[in-house]
Amino acid sequence: MTENLDNYRYKTLIPIRFSDIDAYGNVSNTIYLSYFEIARLNYWKEIVEWDWNNCGVILGRSEINYLKPITIDDTIACYLRTSRIGNSSFDVIYVLVKITSEGEEICTTGKSVCISYDYSNYKSVPIPQRERQRMIEYDEPGLITNTN
């Protein structure tokens, strides 16, 4: 998993809610997938401009690497990029950072396998060409593994 932030163009701030905090004052480990989801949806809206009326996306798998705790007092952001594109599935990788006066500290990394999905027929479908091209163009063709 890439942790070099220079390889990421997309970054979005993530709000920490009081309900995200566990009894020890840290963000609960169950919340990190929600943070990835916020970043992913922002990326799809702002960059990929995914046409939800044409095709949906479902989550096939997610993984999280917890490196440092996040607390309610922290300001955090998520870097995200598409790292692999197949026929109907693609991988998105994430880096959650804590923004401090000294810079950014990497707290968590993750990866999701996303599947282009036709909800009306309940099956995976090829990634729409327009969305595929926008991911490739935005996230540097040399950094994306194409598995077609």
Which class of secondary structure composition applies to the elements? alpha+beta
User: Which parts are unreliable, with pLDDT below 50 for 5 consecutive residues or more?
Assistant: none
User: What is the succession of H and E elements?
Assistant: EHEEEEEHE
Rg over C-alpha atoms, rounded to the nearest angstrom: 16 Å
- Kindly report how far apart the N and C termini lie: 21 Å
Please give the CATH architecture. Roll
How many domains in all? 1
Strand proportion: 35-45%
If you consult CATH, what is the topology?
A: Thiol Ester Dehydrase, Chain A
Which sheet architecture does the biggest sheet show?
A: 7 strands, mixed
What is the C-level CATH assignment?
Alpha Beta
Number of strands: 7
Summarize the structure.
The protein has 148 residues and is α+β, with helices and mostly antiparallel strands. The chain has a single domain, classed as Roll (Thiol Ester Dehydrase, Chain A), CATH 3.10.129. It is built from two helices and seven strands, in the order E-H-E-E-E-E-E-H-E.
